[in-house]
Amino acid sequence: MNNRSPISLCMIVRDEALFLEQCLASVSSVVSEMIIVDTGSTDRSVDIARAYGATVVHMEWQSDFAAARNESLRHAAQPWVLIMDADEQWVEGQQSRLFSLLLEASDGVYGFEVEIKSLLGRSGEDSVTDSACRIFRNDTRIRFKGRIHEEAATSILALGASTLRASGLQLLHYGYLDHIVKRKNKSERNFQLIKEALMQEPDSRILLYALGTEYFQLGDYDAAVRILEPLLDKLPTEAGYASDVFLKTIFALREKGELHQAVEKVEEGVSRYPGFADLQELKAVLLMDLGRDDEALGVLTNISRSREYTSVSGAGTYRSSYLTGVVYERKGEGRHACEAYEKAVEANPDYVPAWQRWIPLAVCSGELAQVERWIGKRGLTEKAQQVVLQQMLDMQQSVWVLKQKCWLQEAFSKMPWAEAILLAQLGERRVAARLLEPWHTHQDMAAEIGIYLQALCSDAAGRGQLRSGDPDRSVAMEDARWMGKQAEAFIRLGAWAGFGAWLPEVKEPSAVLVQLSPSARIGLLLAPLSVRRQLYSWLQEQKEVDREMRERTAASEQAYLNRTSEHEPDTARLEVDSSDRAVPTVQLFMRLALRASFKEKEAGLDLPSYEQEAARILKYKPASSIEAAQSGWNALELFMKQNPQRAEDRFQAAAQLMLL
Fold first, then answer.
1. Pairing of strands 80-83, 126-137
2. Does 241 lie in the same domain as 160?
3. CA separation (Å) from 652 to 153, 293, 479, 525, 644?
4. Within a domain: 513
5. Quick one: which H or E segment has residue 386?
6. HSE value, Cβ hemisphere, 13 Å, CA-based, for 368
7. Alpha-carbon distance values, 520 to 290, 316, 503, 587, 625 (Å)
8. Do 574 and 563 meet the contact criterion of CB atoms below 8 Å apart?
9. Burial code of 236-260, b = ≥16 C-beta within 10 A, e = fewer?
10. Does residue 19 register a pLDDT over 90?
11. How far apart are CA 160 and CA 543, in angstroms?
């Protein structure tokens, strides 16, 4: 520890051995004292704390976070206090700024807010940044309040309006990563604490907000709206969490299918919080849901962004550029969409969603030169390399991969089986199989590599080189997801003989198609003519699609007409399940894209013309304007109005539908 530091670290822990050591290691050079209140650990938390020289105070858990925090403050001896949780880390390189802030703080400054960057997703690919008072004077007047979601800012502000300042310092928080949320499972505990507190303070707005947030995080949007929506008119605009109440309420309304009500609320929210980029982006998404793409584009191109709001990473910057690209795609403006995605990855070269849309769109719209210029100028991060390589292999772009291989070295190193896939596309399937063999016993890769090997066996059998596949390599394909993986393996390997033999065995083609990534669907459109003809005929034979689409359209529209208050438990909803809706839509769009892929000489007299196919498919456009906008039908209508005459333009337009 740093004996010259004027700071006591104060923490409360219980069974935090997984995180505590990295937390204390990150902050040991910043503080001169560590006070850790343990509320009943049964793991190594206490031993780890003592190993770092901490004073450990044992306290029985009283179902009150503020009480535990205040117990830690009672033992602090230094003039300033730093509050941290075990799943947080002090960001390196801030020590000088911290000490300068404390040294220069006037007598009227009692506390500093710290930015808390919470990593989200599987590995922190996204984040949300909030601020909280974590550094304050060791003063008996400053104490925590709140049984749950405890805070000390209220007691600091009670000492004067200017007693709390921003610090510009930051903590990293790991507790919202997917695997940690699943492991800790705090919801049950939080519900109990909040409901106990509400029994004492039934009208507490902060507790109601906390309760609504718990329901929101569990995906119970009916309960979240029921609790949060009444708060909108009760909270003053300056309340620190009021903007988040708007955001969560509007998002939940959208998830419930109450789009028009959500738009009304978002207009009010944007006027109250004009610098809240997340809310403006949500407004754009709602307008897209309603098919009002031009209005959505206007919102996205004029977003204002303020750091005073709790905001998800990329809001107002690369995430807005990404959404702009999606709108341009829906409008049939592929070049502008590519420019928007390029802007997104300029702001964040690791932003996977932008790469996932830009690369397939560039391939099917003839804009690959733009990607090549970008790569040549800036290179690719390791994450971007893996995304680009996988997509290019999906789309059978082996020649491009060979030309750009110098920019993809890290991806080939991290994905050594990619070399085998590349060789298979170049016709060296036996060599590819030999390269894949060692990975068949790999703990994490056995199932996926088994699918590749099975696909190669099936392909060899389909070309007459084998009588049957190796039974030891068979992989059970009991559901659509695994069938989709099998289809992707055939596509990625270019194992078209095996794909053709496998295709008739598939009972639900649309369920498989919906599992494919957009780049894999583009790969199908770039398959050999015989494969595309077979797939097209196969999709034409699925007569059940017609009946299903009519029934679903009627049911969706009836639900819209009959919907009642969202507060009634049996309310009919406008929105049908998204995967259920996507299944027939993607099948119909694939049919059109395949038809567009045929040159006139290839099509023959037995196939309907492109215009006839489009007219047939447009008959199944949902009656609900909302569902039509969300599913890409409006884009199809727009493409047809543009009346592309060249076969290349038709193919580009139809292929872009597969990306929507």
1. antiparallel
2. no
3. 56, 20, 32, 11, 10
4. yes
5. helix 382-394
6. 14
7. 29, 30, 15, 14, 29
8. yes
9. eeeebbbbbbbbbbbbbbbbbbbbe
10. yes
11. 73
Q: What is the span of the domain harbouring residue 79?
A: 7-177
Last residue of a domain, one of 312, 343, 375: 312
What are 526-556's pLDDT values in tens digits? 899 988 988 888 887 764 444 444 444 444 4
> Rounded to a whole number, what is the distance in angstroms from the first to the last CA of the chain?
55
Per DSSP, the three-state class of 577 is coil
Amino acid, single-letter form, for residue 597? S
Q: Are residues 114 and 212 in the same domain?
A: no
Instruction: Tell me what the mean pLDDT of segment 110-131 comes to.
Output: 91
DSSP 460-492: HHHTTS-SS--GGG-----SHHHHHHHHHHHHH
Structure tokens at 240: 């620190």
Long-range contacts made by residues 623-627, C-beta under 8 angstroms, separation at least 24? 623/553, 623/554, 623/556, 623/557, 624/553, 624/556, 624/557, 624/560, 624/574, 625/290, 625/291, 626/259, 626/289, 626/290, 626/291, 626/560, 626/574, 626/575, 627/553, 627/556, 627/574, 627/575, 627/576, 627/581
Residue linked to tokens 């190594």: 44
470-490 pLDDT, tens per residue? 444 444 445 777 888 889 999
Of residues 507 and 279, more confidently modeled = 279
Q: What are phi and psi of 10, to 5 degrees?
A: -120, 125
Q: What is the mean pLDDT of residues 212-226?
A: 94
**Residue type for 208, please?**
L
Could you identify the residue written with the tokens 């060599």? 431
Asked if 206 and 237 sit in the same domain, the reply is: yes
Which three-class secondary structure state does DSSP give residue 159? Answer: coil
Reduce the secondary structure of 605-648 to three states and give it as a string: CCCCCHHHHHHHHHCCCCCCHHHHHHHCHHHHHHHHHHCCCCHH
Residue 142 contacts residue 110 (beta carbons within 8 Å): yes
- What integer is the mean pLDDT of 317-337? 93
Report the predicted TM-score, pTM, of the whole model to 2 decimal places.
Answer: 0.83
Residue 462 lies in a domain: no
Higher pLDDT, 609 or 435: 435
Max Cα-Cα span within the chain: 89
Please say if the pLDDT value at position 398 is more than 80: yes
CB distance 59 to 132 below 8 Å:
no
Q: Which two tokens stand for residue 50?
A: 């003592």
In the 3-class helix/strand/coil scheme, how is 484-503 assigned residue by residue?
HHHHHHHHHHCCHHHHHHHH
The answer to whether residues 120 and 218 belong to one domain is no
* For residue 217, pLDDT beyond 70: yes
Q: Which helix (H) or strand (E) holds 172?
A: strand 164-173
Q: What angle do CA 259, 266, 333 make, to 5 degrees?
A: 70
pLDDT tens, residue by residue, 637-656? 877 777 777 777 777 777 77
Q: Does residue 433 contact residue 444 with C-beta atoms inside 8 Å?
A: no
> Can you name the residues that pair with 311 across neighbouring β-strands?
129
CB atoms within 10 A of CB 296: 24
Q: Residue 504: count other Cβ atoms within 10 Å of its Cβ.
A: 9
In single-letter form, the type of residue at position 429 comes to R
Rg (CA), the chain: 29
Structural domains in the chain (count) = 3
Contact at 8 Å (CB) between 446 and 434? no
